[in-house]
Amino acid sequence: MSDFIQKISELRRQLNEHNYRYYVLDDPLISDGEYDLLLRKLENLEHSHPELITVDSPTQRIGATPLKAFNTITHRIPLLSLANAMNEAELRAFDERTRKGLEKLEPVDYIGEPKLDGLAVELVYENGQFVSGSTRGDGITGEDITTNLRTIRGIPLALRTDELAAPILLEVRGEVFISKTDFTKLNAWRSAAEQTIFVNPRNAAAGSLRQLDPAITARRPLSIFCYQAGTITGTTFDTHWDFLQGLKKWGFPVSPLIEKLVGIEAVIHYHRQLETRRNKLPYEIDGSVIKINSFSQQDRLGIRSRSPRWAIAGKFKAQQATTIVVDISASVGRTGAVTPVANLEPVFVGGVTVSNATLHNQDEVDRLDVRVGDTVLIERAGDVIPKVVKVITEKRPTETVEYHLPENCPVCGHPVFRPPDESVARCQNLACPAQIKGRIEHFVSKGALDIDGFGTKLVDQLVAIGRIQSVDQLFGLTLEELAKLERMGEKSAANIVAAIASAKQTTFARFIYALGIRNVGEHLARVLEKEFAGNIDRFIQSTMEELIEIYEVGPIVAEGVVRFWSDDSNRAVIKACLQAGLTLVKPERPAGADLTGKTFVFTGSLEKFSRTAAKEMVEKLGGRASGSVGKNTAFLVAGPGAGSKLKKAEKLKIRIFSEDEFLAYIKS
Ligand code: IVH
């Protein structure tokens, strides 16, 4: 028997080693066929002794039965996105900002990485074992796709620990993608099997990861490169580079294109080189990612609302193609903006077929002088909606006419108005179905008032019969009138009335988000909730100066807010909502101390938790973490080796905590 156990463990070791050589070192020793043979051997042995099967055995990648739906997973640390640098000047500006932020004249150490065009995922390991994995989702919560991720052979089910011990907890972020050749093969196979083909590798990867049956995912050629740390406990790294090297030792595939770059010139050179190599690479990338190497420098710079200040995505120049404008139409958005759209003869560009391109506004139409029948150059940059770059006037047919946006809204027929100092023309009719529908749908959506059962069909009907012209009227809906609507039973009408009634108890953040103020998303709504302590009147009266003072609020958001409240009709809607019984309650806070208004600074080398995890804990409880000690600092948490910040805190008589004292305090 012991001989048998040894055989099994030797086979597993070999299979893991081959995986490592293939995915991490890119230096396989055996062919795929030989690998499969070894795997089958192991399967046979395990089959005769099922009690010896372990969860991290290479045979256990596709064990799970299909799911009914995905659960959600809340990320311990949000998965942020990256700010973009559209050109070299913006990369230089990033470097300027960084050095200013770090008070540094010398060149900064950066790491260059390719910006992979796939799907971001998070992998969680506890004591070296893969325990769960999720999609990015909205950055805060994602879908639990553990069983699907287990089928990806590049993802280690257990960490290698021969060079580096396994940490207690490890969260790793990476990008799941399909290589260009695998994509072509997959589509060829699908079209032979008369299945619909995928538009591009990214969609194919996304579709494959969202299968409820892991057996289907297992048949898709998914790859992964890991590139970012989440929470790590039990091991620390000083730099991002060291972390990436650690990832390789633990058995994670890391892009071979990562490079250490000292100073901005090296960054620019790296970016250019990557762009030249782009089309020759075996997988799709849409830019470079530049990150500050030192974790302590990253901490000092911190994050904005959605993206870190210590990293940037350098976008590549867009991919272009020429085609013909078949028509120009005007579309009306949720905010009433009337946008001209060029309807194009379909053309393949940057990996997808494009048949519409935005013309933004009348100024842009005039600048381009684009007309129906024109041949135009269009471009696509990443996920951005395609746009018309220029008209090829040599190819213009005779007898074309200039295009002008209609004077009346194409949806409701009301006059379209363009304020003299603005480029956007808007349908002024607040009750315009195009707007009101969008506004209501947003108002009742999950992150907003979350009114169950209030679907698109119901909104369509209520708007069509003129019952709802602004969001507050929703609160007056009665059981009788709902039940009378088409395809609505007594029971569902009652459910909706109940859902509306319970949605009247909401939070400041949900309500503010529901209103659809420009640039105020769910996260910022929570930031504002904290700042204004849930007081809506104070928020309505806030000034530009006051708003800009708020950490995470910039001039664009501030201006949007001020403009929103300067509109009497918006104020009237709020009043009507409150009169209809809407009450703002305090949000539920996680268990622990109330840290509202308290600022923490962390210094020294922390051993019990990472800085990012600490910041996360503090913010969850309503507090704030800052990089420097000042008169607003409430507590300094000092780990071993604390220096100048500790001295300054002592001088300012700021309360000082050890790591343990901090943990005890926030739990109290
Ligand atoms: S780091 C805080 N590194 O880009 C940094 N992201 O816009 C967050 N992506 O959702 C991510 N390659 O899907 C990072 N080398 C790379 C990346 C990368 C692609 C994607 C990722 C993320 C998005 C951020």
Task: Tag the structure with descriptive keywords.
about 20% strand; binds 2-(butylsulfanyl)adenosine; five-stranded mixed sheet; Helix Hairpins; D-amino Acid Aminotransferase, Chain A, domain 1; about 675 residues; single chain; 5 domains; globular; OB fold (Dihydrolipoamide Acetyltransferase, E2P); 24 helices; seven-stranded antiparallel sheet; alpha+beta
SSE map:
Layout: H1 2-23, H2 32-48, E1 72-74, E2 84-85, H3 88-102, E3 109-116, E4 119-126, E5 129-135, E6 141-143, H4 146-150, E7 169-177, H5 180-192, H6 201-209, H7 214-218, E8 223-233, H8 240-250, E9 259-262, H9 263-277, E10 285-292, H10 295-301, E11 311-315, E12 319-332, E13 337-349, E14 352-358, H11 362-368, E15 375-380, E16 387-391, E17 416-417, E18 425-427, H12 433-444, H13 456-464, H14 479-483, H15 490-503, E19 505-507, H16 508-514, H17 522-531, H18 536-540, H19 544-548, H20 555-566, H21 568-579, E20 583-585, E21 599-603, H22 611-620, E22 624-626, E23 633-638, H23 644-651, E24 655-657, H24 659-667
Parallel strand pairs: 2-11, 19-20, 21-22, 21-23, 23-24
Antiparallel strand pairs: 1-6, 3-9, 3-10, 4-5, 4-7, 7-8, 10-11, 12-13, 12-15, 13-14, 13-18, 15-16, 17-18
The structure holds 2-(butylsulfanyl)adenosine.
